[in-house]
Amino acid sequence: MIKKEMVTYLLDYLIKENPQFRSIVVPSDLAGQETLLRALLNVRPPMAVSSSFLTIQNDYLQLKKAERVVVFLNHLQPTSADKRLYIWKGDITRLKADAIVNATNHRMLGCFQPLHDCADNAIHTYAGVQLRLDCYKLMQEQGHDEPTGMAKITPAYNLPAKFVLHTVSPTITINGYLTPADAALLAKSYLSCLSLAEKNQLTSVALPALVTDNSTHFINQNAAKIAIQTTKDFLEHSHFVNKVIFNVDEDEALTLYQQLLN
Asked: What residue stretches are annotated with the Macro domain (predicted)?
C-alpha cells in the first residue's frame, strides 16, 4: 500500500468513527490530507482501534519517521567537559535514544489541540494512537491526576526512541519567578525521569527544558542550571544511564547550555 492509500484509509476510518466528522471535506492533495489526518488524531480520545487500523497507521508512521530523518546518538558530539552529556538543538521526536522525556499535563493524555506546535503534540502524533491509550490506562489504574514532579513510562511505539518518560513539571505563574518550591519540583521532575530510566535499565535519555519562559532569561538560566546539576548528581550514582542529551529548540537555549556545560 502506498502512502496516499494509507492516508485515505486512516482518514476514512477516523471520519466514520466519529459522527461529528461526517461533514468534513477531505482535501484533494496529499499534503492537505496528511494535515487533516494529524488534526483528527490530535483530537481523538483514548480508545481502542481495529488491528487493521493499527497496522496501517504503524506502516504510515514508519514512512514518516524515515522522511523526517532519525538522529542517532553516534552522530552527536558529547560536551568537552563531560563525555556523558550532550546538547542537541532539534525535534526530540527524531532522536533515537532509549528514552525521551515528554513534559505533559496532569491528565497525562497529550495535547488535544489540533496541529499545536508543542513537543507533547508531536510525541503523540508520531508515536501513534497507542500512546494516548497507554497513558489513559495508567491514569485509570492510578485513580488520580499525575502529581507535579512525578513520572511515568510507556513504550514509544513508532518513535525512534524505545520509551517515553512522561512528567508534569511546575507551572510558573507569579511574574515569571522561579520560587524555591518551583525549583525543588523542577529538580524532582528531572530526577523522577532519570530514576525511572535507571529502574528500567535504560542507558540514554533525552531531556528537554521542562520549564521555560521567553519573557525572562532568569527562569531559563536557573532552570537550565537545575537540569544540569540534577543530572550530574544523578550520574555519579547511576549504574545504567550513561548518556544524557539536553534537548533545546532555540538558539538562545543552545548557547546557554553550551556556556553552562563547557
From this structure: 72-262
